[in-house]
Amino acid sequence: MKSAAHTYAEKAIQSIRSVEADPDCNNKDYGRLCLLFPSMVQVNGLRLTVAFFQSKGKSQKTLHQRYLQDLAATVGSAAWETGLSTNDMMDYRDLTRHVLQAAVWFKRYAEAILKVEAADGLDS
Fold first, then answer.
1. pTM value?
2. What is the largest distance, in Å, between two alpha-carbon atoms of the chain?
């Protein structure tokens, strides 16, 4: 039986590899989102961070939307949708914990594979 961390690591590397192979995707910008997301969740909470990322992709499919989709696939789309809309704080905290655990893997792989550094800034 695989641990949750192992599952998150596998799915995160698949997502990062697909971004790396996509010629239409800006690898550095996606990597910066991977670095930015966990700290935004820590400061603002999961709901506000997701709302911010969703608002960035309203008019067109953006890297923000792609990151959210990749993250949702990693933690489980069903858990993602129900966890964000629930009023049960235990479910929300559990989802936040799982999302942060998965986001750490995205961050690690962005640094290792996409060669993004914390000093790199976001222009958007």
1. 0.87
2. 42
